[in-house]
Amino acid sequence: MIGNSVGLRVRPPQPYPENLNYTHLLQRMLTTRGRSHAHVENLCIGRSTIREVLEMGDTIYHSFPDVFIINAGITDCSTREIPLWFSNLIYSSRTSLFRNIAAAIHKFVIIPQRRRFVILRGKRSWTSPRLFRHYYAKLIGDLVKNTNGFLILMKINDCTDRVETQLPGTRANIARFNQIIEDLAQLVPQRTRLIEVGDLDPETDLPDGIHYSRVGHEKIAARLNAVIEEVCP
After folding, report:
1. What is the pTM of this model?
2. Torsion angle, CA of 184/186/192/198, rounded to 10 degrees?
3. For position 5, what pLDDT does the model report?
4. DSSP reduced 3-state for 194
5. pLDDT(233) > 80
6. Domains observed in the chain
7. Which residues of 13-24 are buried (b: 16+ CB within 10 A; e: fewer)?
8. Between vectors from CA 35 to CA 29 and to CA 36, what angle results, nearest 5°?
9. Rounded distance, CA 19 to CA 123, Å?
């Protein structure tokens, strides 16, 4: 499993031991259906763009899995109130006066006027559609070249009205980037399956507008399990 925090977070968080994302749930489904040897490894990292996923390189390839699940795109396509370099500064692990000042400006000046700053930036996302297509195609090409793994490409969740209000233009970008993912699924059709998520209810399955609820994770795990049962009998 590679991608961003959509593959990690459960919203709202559940008490232990039920705070399970679809990686955990998929592992449970596979092992209870006679695949005692099955192991699902989650390499998702919060805030990862498709370029950062691509740059993981050998970290992705090293275990040579039977199936790669790619859940990427929402970090790339969401419109943003700040550029990526500014966000990287705020979330840097290195503490500095400059970082603290930037974080304070973001929290107390920009966030309260987030919609306005998104519009002032021209509703730009951190990754353009052209670069998203380029990096995603390169990722697929590298996986096909370096492994024998089957590829499952997950489309990007729709966002809630609340997210669209705060980040105007995100919903249109999701549709645009999903079309790119759909197109790229045809590059190697014999080794690729596409997971649709457009029928999920943003209000119940994506309570914070981006990440899955426990119910949402269960639905995704079931869809992934069905594909794996098909391609890895």
Report:
1. 0.94
2. 70
3. 95
4. strand
5. no
6. 2-79+124-231 (3.40.50.1110), 82-122 (no CATH)
7. eeeeeeebbbbb
8. 100
9. 34
